[in-house]
Amino acid sequence: MYLFIIVCITIVILICLSFINFSDNYSTCLYDSLSQKSYIYVDNKNNIQTIQKSLNNQDNIYYIKNNSLYHYNKIIKKLLLCNKYNIEFMNKKYNTKLLS
Q1: Rounded Cα–Cα distance for residues 28 and 25 (Å)
Q2: Looking at the domain assignment, is residue 8 inside a domain?
Q3: pTM here?
């Protein structure tokens, strides 16, 4: 009986912890020099820097095609154009701040 209670409490705690965002995610506008457009993207600083560097170098590790971000020819995420409305929407949706 006590074991069951302990297991239940542990499960509840794990579920609660899963809703807490421990990562430091930010929103940013990734600039694609090929299309000359910017797209809003949410991730941690390191990933954002890596993706933007790849886009700048046009090395095709990361690239944007048809409003989607690709990594080695695999789609990672659909992207929205970067504008004030989309930035505010993404910041509210993911509880992030704009990376400056």
Answers
A1: 10
A2: no
A3: 0.73
Q: What distance in Å separates the CA atoms of residue 96 and residue 42, rounded to the nearest whole number?
A: 8
Q: Residue with structure tokens 């090395």?
A: 59
Total number of domains in the chain: 1
- Give the residue numbers spanning the domain of 67: 23-98
CA-nearest of 77, 75, 66, 79 to 35 is 66
The tens-digit pLDDT sequence of the chain (100 residues) is 777 787 667 777 767 655 555 558 999 999 999 999 999 999 999 999 999 999 999 999 999 999 999 999 999 999 999 999 999 999 999 999 998 7
Q: What's the Cα-to-Cα distance from 23 to each of 19, 26, 46, 79, 97, rounded to whole Å?
A: 12, 9, 12, 21, 13
Radius of gyration of the CA atoms of the chain, in A = 18
